[in-house]
Amino acid sequence: xxxxxxxxIQKLYLKDVSFETPNSPDIFxxxxxxxxxxxxxxxxxxxxxxxxxxxxxxxxxxxLEEKTAYLVEAVQAGIFAIQGFAQEELGPLLGIYxxxxxxPYVREVVSDLSMKGGFLPMxxxxxxxxxxxxxxxxxxxxxxxxxxx
Length: 149
Known about the structure:
Blueprint: E1 6-20, E2 34-48, E3 51-64, E4 67-83, H1 87-116, H2 129-146
Helix pairs in contact: 1-2
């Protein structure tokens, strides 16, 4: 008999956060025409049998002209209990579903910090974690295919 599939969120938490406004207060006198750089990554760590920590790291750098208005880095984490899933199902669960669970939380952190820093709220755009995961799998397949035996 196959093991019953179980998925549970054990804990959601903010693991690390940083907010910098290196050019304040002068930056507030410049015309607000921001250039935004947005970087996103996720990482998975197996804690014990059927227990995983997934982290979602977001870095947002906002510049006016060449000056940094602010920089936010936030690491949102979750501990997920996952059992009964086949190995081929585990990758998408950890690489797509879990980051989708974490994203709204990290989006709120970035928005709150930007406002508390004296700026307009930074609302991160939606992210297609399925496409990111597919791209990562394709890159890994190409890298493993390029290696000589």
